[in-house]
Specification:
Blueprint: H1 2-29, H2 41-55, H3 58-76, H4 90-114, H5 132-156, H6 162-175, H7 177-197
Length: 198
């Protein structure tokens, strides 16, 4: 799997280089100016000046939040209780009841912030989509997974110390590291393509 991921990353890098060369060739051969070269002064200024702005997209935050939450979920052992062969211990049953209470509390708060007339998270016109709620739905889901998993891990005894929660967050980021790399490569390639032909 790692070898396949490395070949995909290499292919994305090669595609970026080919796009740079192709943009130069097309900009020279087409005089109408519909294609911009990444090797021109404008292209170089765009590449260096916009690099951080190109990467600053909500998908990057989604990957980061998901990696942290997934790490805590995996580390807490909450996923293991849904296996049919797993027999619940006393502390796990207590932890599950507490998780159910927290999940119900989160849902109740979200309903109060969205379902009543003139709710805070609705748009100016009173719509749910698009609205502040729809913009924050992914972070809310990630926070819900994080908080319920952390509570389950602490109450069930899987997390003996706060350092265990921290280590599981690190493990989550480590396991999602390839996604960060692909995010950077794909975002740069797509943005370069839009700059050249857009």
């Amino acid at each position: 799997m790692n070898r396949v991921a490395s070949y995909i990353a290499l292919a994305l890098c090669v595609a970026e280089v080919l796009l740079i060369l192709m943009s130069w060739l097309l900009s020279v051969s087409l005089a109408d100016g519909s294609v911009r070269s990444l090797l021109s002064s404008e292209g170089v200024r765009w590449f260096f000046g916009s690099y951080v702005d190109i990467l600053l997209r909500q998908q990057l935050i989604w990957i980061l939040l998901l990696s942290l939450s997934w790490g805590v979920y995996k580390g807490s052992g909450m996923g293991a209780i849904f296996r049919s062969a797993h027999r619940l211990q006393y502390r796990e049953r207590i932890a599950l009841w507490l998780v159910a209470f927290i999940a119900a509390l989160i849902v109740t708060v979200l309903l109060l912030l969205t379902a009543i007339p003139h709710a805070v998270l609705l748009s100016v016109t009173g719509a749910l989509f698009p609205s502040p709620f729809s913009e924050s739905i992914f972070p809310v889901l990630a926070f819900s997974l994080f908080s319920t998993s952390a509570v389950f891990g602490i109450v069930s005894g899987t997390f003996q110390h706060i350092d265990n929660v921290y280590q599981s967050m690190k493990q989550g980021v480590n396991s999602f590291a390839p996604l960060f790399l692909f995010y950077v490569l794909i975002t740069q390639l797509l943005s370069s393509f839009i700059f050249v032909f857009g």
